[in-house]
UniProtKB/TrEMBL annotation:
Positions of the catalytic residues: 426, 477, 486
TM ranges: none
Gene Ontology biological process terms in this record: cellulose catabolic process
Keyword Hydrolase included in the entry's annotation: yes
Matches recorded under SUPFAM superfamilies: Six-hairpin glycosidases (SSF48208)
Name of the molecule in the record: Endoglucanase
GO MF terms held by the record: cellulase activity
UniProt cross-references to Gene3D superfamilies, sorted A to Z: 1.50.10.10
Keyword Transit peptide applies: no
Reaction catalysed by this enzyme: Endohydrolysis of (1->4)-beta-D-glucosidic linkages in cellulose, lichenin and cereal beta-D-glucans
EC number(s) given by UniProt: 3.2.1.4
Signal peptide positions on this chain: 1-27
Length: 509
């Protein structure tokens, strides 16, 4: 069998020998012949990926779905949410593959969607309206969650009981318990992030819907005042319900700085600038913690505040250029301040659980800071190394390209993008037959047979980005493996901005 050579492969061999005779030694150009699956020289369709990255949010919707719902395998769910506390909490997003509405990651998702549109919405063309709709689906809910002064409803659903079932959101019968923070049970972290979400979103609707924008900003101001006055971490008072799912490990100081930064941007009120000046140090402005995600906002706050100095020439914030530079230097290989780890295939690697969230959030910050530096005609200096905006964009592009398929497995980690992508994502609605196919209720424990099945998910959650490969670029594509196979809204949100920039810069928008 080993000696059997087809005519096609024999002809290819003759051609290779011919080319080799033309290019002796190492001069043979490898790009003349490569495997059909080899993506190294292929340009990604960033516009298609952008469309799908926003479409994903429709699959995460809770509440009454609109008539123009595009992911039609989803139906209405959670229509009595909030009734346990006599408040309307219908709507919002499920954070990941479960059926709980966690306010902390939902607020961060909203902030990052808004920031994506603020920086790169002008490049989105036809997707700008879809991005606005995705933001509004969240802010409508956050307005409900903050309707009572000095109170925020921060979670709907008992996570422990929800995780003991594997059922469609349309079928869920686990308790829709409601959890809140107030003066007696403070939560400055989730409150300040909610303020950031409302403030950033107010900028998105300032021209298109001024009255809605004013409502968002007025609420953001009130919510931030509550966060600052009644200080404490929400995972202290609500520990049995929010931990270990979304414990606030980094404390609440980073959210207070982040929230103040967004309110300064949205209001231009000097009181917030003064707050940042007076409290910045105690809130960790110069900490060397270089992780940015749903829990830790330090790096994001530094980048955001650096714009006020670089672009708007707010001199009192000059230190934030240095703080932002320190973050950037931590990511750049080969300089004395480098802290980042990368997989053999080149992916930024922070941790096993949902690592792709750090890839997307870091890529967004790199592209955003590159934009600010370009406007100000500045660079970053890491020891003796000069890092240009062009270098930052190249690093971000490489990360996004890895996510879309330029990796050792030649696999896209965005569902529905490319020829090969995860088939067995850790997501209840995607993994169980839809209402249209199976109208009868699927009971709590009955769904576990689907969860453990090796069969592909019947419903494609288009645009979902999963947790991603391990530190050795391996990805088993197994549904029970939530660390690698579960999508989340906060993975996608910063990617929206990054894809809009890449689609534009490659001439696709």
């Amino acid at each position: 069998m080993a000696l059997s050579v087809s005519f096609t492969s024999f002809s290819t061999l003759i051609l290779l020998c011919f080319f080799a005779s033309l290019f002796p030694g190492n001069a043979f150009p490898s790009q003349l012949y490569h495997h059909p699956n080899h993506r190294r020289f292929a340009s990604h369709n960033y516009r298609d990926a952008l469309t799908k990255s926003i479409l994903f949010f429709e699959g995460q919707r809770s509440g009454k779905l609109p008539s123009n719902q595009r992911l039609s395998w989803r139906r209405d769910s959670g229509l009595s949410d909030g009734s346990a506390m006599h408040v309307d909490l219908v709507g919002g997003y499920y954070d990941a593959g479960d059926n709980v509405k966690f306010g902390f990651p939902m607020a961060f998702t909203t902030t990052m969607l808004s920031w994506s549109v603020l920086e790169f919405g002008g490049l989105m063309q036809g997707e700008l309206q879809n991005a606005r709709v995705a933001i509004r689906w969240a802010t409508d809910y956050l307005l409900k969650a903050t309707s009572h002064p000095n109170t925020i409803y921060v979670q709907v659903g008992d996570a422990n009981k929800d995780h003991s079932c594997w059922e469609r959101p349309e079928d869920m019968d686990t308790p829709r318990s409601v959890f809140k923070i107030d003066k007696n049970t403070p939560g400055s972290d989730v409150a300040a992030e909610t303020a950031a979400a409302l403030a950033s979103a107010s900028l998105i609707f300032r021209k298109s819907d001024p009255s809605y924008s004013r409502l968002l900003l007025t609420r953001a101001i009130r919510v931030f005042a509550f966060a600052n006055k009644y200080r404490g971490s929400y995972s202290n008072g609500l520990k049995p319900y929010v931990c270990p799912f979304y414990c606030s490990y980094s404390g609440y100081q980073d959210e207070l700085l982040w929230g103040a930064a967004w309110l300064h941007k949205a209001t231009r009120n000097p009181a917030y600038l003064n707050y940042i000046q007076v409290n910045g140090q105690s809130l960790g402005a110069d900490e060397s913690d270089n992780v940015f995600g749903w829990d830790n906002k330090h790096a994001g706050a530094r980048i955001l505040l650096s714009k006020a100095f670089l672009v708007q020439k707010v001199q009192v914030l000059h230190d934030y250029k240095g703080h932002a530079d320190n973050y950037i230097c931590s990511l750049i290989p080969g300089n004395p301040f480098s802290q980042a780890q990368y997989t053999p295939g080149g992916l930024l690697f922070r941790m096993n659980d949902s690592n792709m969230q750090y890839v997307t959030s870091t890529s967004f910050l790199l592209l955003t800071y590159a934009k600010y530096l370009t406007t100000a005609h500045k660079v970053v200096t890491c020891g003796g190394m000069t890092v240009t905006p062009k270098r930052l964009r190249a690093i971000a592009k490489k990360q996004v390209d890895y996510l879309l398929g330029d990796n050792p497995l030649k696999m896209s980690y965005m569902v529905g993008y490319g020829g090969r992508y995860p088939q067995r994502i850790h997501h209840r609605g995607s993994s169980l037959p839809s209402i249209a196919v199976h109208p009868a209720k699927i009971q709590c424990s009955s769904g576990f047979s689907a969860m453990k099945s090796p069969s592909p998910n019947p419903n494609i959650l288009v645009g979902a980005v999963v947790g991603g490969p391990d530190q050795h670029d391996r990805f088993p594509d197994q549904r029970p493996d939530y660390e690698q196979s579960e999508p989340a809204t906060y993975i996608n949100a910063p990617l929206v901005g990054a894809l809009a920039y890449l689609a534009h810069s490659s001439g696709q928008l």
